[in-house]
Amino acid sequence: MKRLIMFGLALTLAACAITIPTARPAYAADTPANPIAKSGWVLTKNDEFNGTTLDTSLWVPRYLGFRTSTDRGNADYYFKDGSIVLRVTNSMPTYYSSGDQMKVSSLQTAQGDFHQGSYTKNHNEPYASKFSQQYGYFEIRAKGQADRSGHSAFWFNTDDPSIYQQATRNTTQQLEIDAFENFRRNQYRFNLYNPMNAGIGNTGGGSYSFDFSADYHIYAMEWSPDYVKYYVDNQLVKQVSATNIVNKPMFVYLSLYVNTWGGDSSPTYPAEFTIDYFRAYQKAAEVNIKQEAENLPLTLSSGVTKETWADGASGGSWVKVLSDSTGDYAEFTANVPSSGNYQVITGYRTGNTRGISQLSINGTNHGSPIDMYKSTAAYQEATTTVNFGSAGSKKFRYTITGKNASSSNYQIGIDYIKLVKVN
Ligand SMILES: [Ca+2]
Ligand SMILES: [Ca+2]
What we know:
2 domains, nine-stranded antiparallel beta sheet
């Protein structure tokens, strides 16, 4: 991870083309106005950090907890003037019990033993994913640490255990995008590590024209299948182009480390990384191609019937499929407007008669089986990402694979199928 990549500049850039603007952007003395509404983008998640408590529905206040005992991984933070301040103090325990003297305060939007999983485990940790997204625009407004022995980072790891069960599990570097690693008050490094595909790259670093510890600045990363762009104060600073860049949802870290990484061996405490807000967006033009289940052609397996119910559903109705055993299915024919990568979002109606179904599209399974059982009725979504090689009508089939032990039947309830194009 981070210590390894800083001075290990072995670049494999055959599939990457790095574009460095010829003129450096003129960084404003003050952070430019940055309205939360961005033309062309839809806000998918944000935390303005304007309260006095951490939103634990979004953040895990712990750094890669499985690698060390809990007290060593816990974040130290407080809220001040509409920002969260991540802090590393002299009295804070080192992250590791011996050896490496690193101290860290970090927030992350997922946890799991497989994240950065090549490290020795101290204990097992339950998997939790609070926010991850594939492609989009991600930004923070922040002020970095003044301490020259530390560094702060706004970075991303893939949130897919299957990746780590493959060869990368045994390598020292895994899927990672670093929107920045900031050190020595004005130095930065942007990174893109993508061992799953051809484009493995350390995208290099440089110097800001400002002391990032003195004032807030806006740092952003735009990620598409074909490039990653890095922005500072809304100015494009660097672009890395490659093919099929990290094609899995990633989750977010905000991290402050103190060690000797920046080249100074005597930390100045406390070190603080202050974040005014975190915001994530997806491209607006590609959002919300919603097709109501009640309007779609529907084929049912032998002996299965359906009913149409209202209940305040999207578009006025939802479709209840009266499947009653494993193997039954409901197949909707929906249109894919163009080829490319999409989030396929199934809008479904929960209930105590629902089964577990697997989505297949034109015969290929996608995503995990969807358990629509709940003791109460509600509308929920299940999302998976699919690459469509062509446009046109596709068969979205939900096949019953079982049921929750608490469910009384194997029914399926579909409200809509939504396609979100992500490239
Ligand atoms: Ca704020
Ligand atoms: Ca509907």
